[in-house]
Amino acid sequence: MTDPDTPLQPKRKGLSRSRRRALSRGAQYVLFVAAVVAFAVSADWARLKNQFAQWDIAEQMFPDVITLALKNTVLYTLSGFVFGLVLGMVIALMRLSSVGPYRWFAGVYIEIFRGLPALLIFIFIGVAVPLAFPGTEIPGGTYGKVALALGLVAAAYMAETIRAGIQAVPKGQLEAARSLGFSPARAMVSIIIPQAFRIILPPLTNELVLLFKDSSLVLFLGVTLEERELSKYGRDLASTTANSTPILVAGLCYLLVTIPLGFVVRRMEAKAQEAVK
After folding, report:
1. Which of 254, 247, 217 is nearest to 120 (CA)?
2. What pTM value is reported for the model?
3. Gap between the Cα atoms of 117 and 251, Å rounded
4. What is the DSSP letter of 215?
5. Largest CA distance in the chain
6. Rounded to 5 degrees, what angle do the CA atoms 50, 54, 55 make?
7. Torsion sign over Cα 137, 221, 213, 71
8. CA 150, 155, 156, 162 torsion: positive or negative?
9. Per-residue model confidence as pLDDT tens digits over 39-80
10. ABC transmembrane type-1 domain: from which residue to which, for each copy (predicted)?
C-alpha cells in the first residue's frame, strides 16, 4: 500500500533508447553528408581534372597498360602466391612438428619475415643475394626474384593461417583416419589438410589481394621496359608526360582485380558462416 502522505513521484520524461539511437544515427548521416559536401565544394576540380584526367594521355596507355603492365603484375602476384603457399605449408607443418628444432626454426622465420617490411626483402633479394653468391642467377630472372621475394613474405603469414586451419579441424578426424589404418602423414595429407583449406580459403584469397599490391615493389629489383608492372609503368609515363593521369589509370587497373577478389572473399566468408550455423 502507498502511504497517502507520501507525495507521488513525477514520471521521468525523456527519449526512449530506440529513439536516442535513431537520433544518433541520423546525426552521423548528417555529419557525413556535410563532410562530403564540404569536400566537393572546396576542391579545385578543374586543376584535378587537368592533372589526373587527361583522356588523350590515358588513351596512349592502351593496350600496353593491360597487355604488358597488368599482365606482368598478375604473373608476379601468382608466382609469389604459389611459392609462398608451398613454403607456408612447409613452415606450418614444421610449426606443428613434435621435433623441437623444427618448431624453433619455423617460429623464428615467422617472426622475422612478418616483422620486416616487404621493401627490405626486395632489396635483400636484389642486392644482398648477388653479393653473397657471385655469379649465381635465380632461376626465372625477374619473375623468379619476385616470386622469391613475395613468397618469403607471404609464407610467414600463410604459415600461421594454415596452422590455424589445421588446428581448427576436429581431432576426431585424425583419430578416425588412424583407426582406419592411415599413417600420420597420409592422414594429414588426405584428411586434415583438405578440410583445413576449406576453412582458410577466404584469408588465403585476402593474402592474394595483398600480394597483388605488394608486387609494385618489383621496381627495386631493376626491371626492363618489358618487365614493368602497373606502378612502374604508370610512374614512367607520368614522368614522361609531366602529368599524373597514368598513375590514376594504373590505380584503376589495380581496382579491376582487387575489387572482384574482395567480393569473392566476402562471399566465401558468408558461406563459411552459413555452414557453421
Report:
1. 217
2. 0.83
3. 22
4. G
5. 103
6. 155
7. negative
8. positive
9. 888 888 888 889 898 999 999 999 999 999 999 999 999 999
10. 70-265
> What is residue 52's three-state secondary structure?
helix
Stretch (H or E) spanning 205: helix 193-214
What is the DSSP secondary-structure string of 57-95? HHHHTTTHIIIIIIHHHHHHHHHHHHHHHHHHHHHHHHH
What are the pLDDT digits (tens) for 217-267? Answer: 998 888 888 999 999 999 999 999 999 999 999 999 999 999 998 888 888
Find all residues with CB under 8 Å of 174, minimum gap 6, and list them.
Answer: 184, 187, 188, 191, 192
Dig out the grid coordinates for 113 from the structure. Answer: 619475415
Q: What is the DSSP string of 27-64?
A: HHHHHHHHHHHHHHHHS-HHHHHHHH--HHHHHHTTTH
Task: Record the cell numbers describing residue 67, joined without a space.
Answer: 597487355
Residue reference for cell 566476402: 266
Who contacts 262 (Cβ-Cβ below 8 Å, separation ≥6)?
A: 209
Cell of 133: 653468391
